[in-house]
Amino acid sequence: MKRTATTLLLSLLAAILVLPVLAQPVRNGVDVVWARDVEGATMTLDGMLDEAAWQEAEMIVIQRGQFYGPGGGWQDFTGFAINEPTDPVDATIYFLRDGNTLWIGVDAADKSIGGTQDFFQHDGLVMSILNKNNRETAYDGAHWFNGGNTDEFFFSWLNRSSAGGPLIPDSVGIGAILFGNQAVDGVPVDDIWDGATVVDGVSNDDTNGTGQPTEDVGYTMEVIIDLEKLGFDMTDADGDHLALTAGIYDLDYSWPADPNLRFRSRAWWQNPWGGDMPFGAGFVYGSPDVTISSGDVPEITEPDLRIPKTGDATVITLDGQLDEAIWSNVEPQVTLQYQMSPEMLDALPGYGPYYTHWFRPGFVSEEESPPVVDPSIGAIRMFYQGNTLYVGLDSDDQAISGQVGVLDRNDGIRFTIRQLEDAEGGPALNPLVGFRVVVDSTGSAVLLDAALGGDGNPAPGVQAAVFLNDGSTAGDPSDVDAGYQIELAIDLEEVFGYPADLDGEVIRIGAVYFDGDDLDPAENGYGTRTWWLTENPGDFGGPAAMAYFDASLVSANEDAAEVPREITLYGNYPNPFNPATTLLYALPQTGEVRVHVFDVLGRQVALMTPGVQHAGTNTYTFEAPGLASGLYLYRVDLLQAGNVRASARGQMILLK
Predict the structure, then answer these.
(1) pTM (two decimals)
(2) Where are the domains of the chain?
(3) Region of poorest pLDDT, from 24-38, 302-316, 409-423
């Protein structure tokens, strides 16, 4: 029996070791930047950037004409006599951290500095930052938003009061002010942030007091933000990271207005707005061990989610039924529901826990609108084969409307993919492409948006099908349905020009779950939609999650039994061992894993954190150079939302 178990262990290890290992893309400099800790160095908020720590800061360079994927870009505003600025946006943004205080520095080259009382006609910094402390659901008159919405932080020469009236005249020498929902007339709310700036020149005076055209040189800024008041703790042993975007606005030669030079433009990292992130989201990381003297910062390579691969020999029948074994092996990566619970939100990948919204058209109030009696759940799974991405939706909808022409009563999914392009100007650098599949009154699939070709047939490279679960009908408001399934296949090579083999490629995605409920009587009907990250195609749909096509998750034997119901231990090899051994186990679902090691007296001697691992077989190597020979016990925990969901215990022998 022992020999049989050892043979199984060796074969499983061998199967894992032969899987292809691909280098994951580094997110640093793309949508990630680190804030190094200053290690107690004295920092003075004077706008001068003259502390030595700034020389060690990580930075983002923002210039007109460059592309800052996935959501970055630049834009020229129209209505001027010239088509090209003589003084384009050119700035560097630096990031540091003093404990749990974030320091942001700006060094901008600008020949004409100033601002007006009109929105966006000014120079300066505009940021959108996630506030995790805003967790309560809110209604803005059109949409329901989950908690953790973004705050706007303007530090600029926008010469305007928070109440909408002028603060002071557009006078010579005006200073930059704090603006946004965390400041009132230049005064920060609850001491959450502050800023200072230094101008090399004179603001709102393109003569600099000489009476003759005289150019400014530029300006520097320092901004401090109390991260605790936004719900973050970068002093935690595991560090933390926050979602942040930054834009530099630039208005030139308006004091006095020179029609031959006057111009207005902006450039941004991820997103140009304050208070929202419709273009994309960036992330600032901080950790106690990343300081101004710690050397190179860690490379962030972990994607928001991984899309597993199925073998080339696997036959996928596109009939709407998620009945192939691979669908059972893949845990739902995204689960959506109207007015989701905090626990459901926390389970979403990427920025999803804080950028998932829902909308109920025609909603007036809880008292005046019919109740949502069937807030159905839509579970979305993904895998790939060759160059094709497969997306499956499993819905438990009990009132399948079957309406196609009325968006607000659709049942189905819109799967969005951000199309990354080279910079050619304007904000439309990386539009979201939406593939919508809805159920019609016959229970068939109707393809819309980019899934529909110009000839009225499915677009080249796109296929979809619907399957109604037993007893379900579409378009009959008098019965109770048992839900439906959708299969969507997108040939990414044909549609977007991806390689023929998707192994190691990256895609940025989002999804909308439509749930139209036609009821009897008709006035009780309603529609809802819930979206993870992106709602609409085009430029303003929202941020998108970074997904990685992970060939290491390929399953040679796709029997659904490979994914156990609980954690399954396959032992460790070698055993006995010295000084290292590999633990082999299978997980019932994707989640964070922790491994505890105890001596025979029950004392914990080691704690390992492999991080997030995926459903199915996984390994982790335990090294024990400092432990004495003997029997040791270990426990593998699977965590969900920080709590232990399942555990399994084993033992091993260290023999020196």
Answers:
(1) 0.80
(2) 32-286, 305-555, 563-654
(3) 409-423
CA dihedral 572, 573, 576, 581 (to 10 degrees): -80
More confident residue, 343 or 138: 343
Q: Provide the token pair at 618.
A: 């996984």
Give the Å distances, CA to CA, from 351 to 15, 358, 378, 419, 542: 34, 15, 19, 19, 11
Q: How many CB atoms lie within 10 A of CB 630?
A: 11
Q: What is the pLDDT of residues 473-501, one digit of tens each?
A: 999 998 999 999 999 999 999 999 999 99
Is 32-286 CATH 3.40.50.80? no
Cis bond before residue 256 (omega within 30° of 0): yes
3-state secondary structure 109-137: ECCCCCECCCCCCECEEEEEEECCCCCCC
pLDDT in the model for residue 576:
86
Contacts of 603 (CB under 8 A, 6+ apart): none
Domain covering 563-654: architecture:
Sandwich (2.60)
User: What is the token pair recorded at 574?
Assistant: 């070698």
* Matching fold, domains 305-555 and 563-654: yes
**DSSP assignments along 591-627, one per residue:** EEEEEEEE-TTS-EEEEEEEEEE-SEEEEEEEE-TTS
Give the pLDDT confidence of 138-179 residue by residue, as tens digits: 666 666 655 557 899 999 998 877 666 555 667 899 899 998
| Cα 266 from Cα 280, distance rounded (Å) | 16
- The CATH class of the 305-555 domain is mainly beta
Q: Which distant-in-sequence residues (6+ apart) come within 8 Å of 502 by Cβ?
A: 309, 384, 386, 387, 389, 492, 549
